[in-house]
Amino acid sequence: MRAVLQRVRSASVSVEGRIIGEIGPGIVVLLGFGGSDGSGMIGGPVWIRFMQKLLGLRLFPDAGGPINASLADHGGGILVVSQFTLYADVKKGRRPSFSKAAQPEAALALYKAFVADLRRQWSQVAEGEFGADMDVSLVNWGPVTIWLDSDEL
Q: What angle do CA 149, 151, 153 make, to 5 degrees?
């Protein structure tokens, strides 16, 4: 499981010109699953560490500094957008290979479980539409952009 987290002043995701998810200040989570990620990881130790890391990272300003408060300290929303391209392999040629990404059916189940678990822990969660051609708009605040990989936690 991989994610790119971006601290934002605002963000939205649209499908066919219709906004389906939006937040004010908070975090955009571009989320992808790899071929080795399976339903057995849901609720397991790696899943829990990943979720705790996402919610606990100090990405927001407070009196102590520009990157000193967590989302829990600062408040705000989370916008989750499925992003299988986080598993792109660009070692050969110019066309990315996505063979390391989870198959769509498995990724959809993991994505839904992730969003549901996140909603149990955080009140302001919006999301994109899995598998859709989405337009994601955001105002990156900082900019602050962080890479999370479950293999590195």
A: 75
Cis peptide before 143 (omega within 30 of 0): yes
Query: 85 an active-site residue?
Result: yes
Secondary structure element (H or E) that encloses residue 149, with its range: strand 134-149
Q: Which two tokens stand for residue 153?
A: 């936690």
Active-site residue 6, yes or no?
Answer: no
Per-residue pLDDT of the chain (153 residues; tens, 9 = 90+): 999 999 999 999 999 999 999 999 999 999 999 999 999 999 999 999 999 999 999 999 999 999 999 999 999 999 999 999 999 999 999 999 999 999 999 999 999 999 999 999 999 999 999 999 999 999 999 999 999 999 998
User: 62 in the Ramachandran plot: left (φ > 0), alpha (ψ -120 to 50) or beta?
Assistant: beta
128: its two tokens = 């994109």
Active site residue 121: no
Exactly one of 85, 103, 121, 145 is catalytic; name it: 85
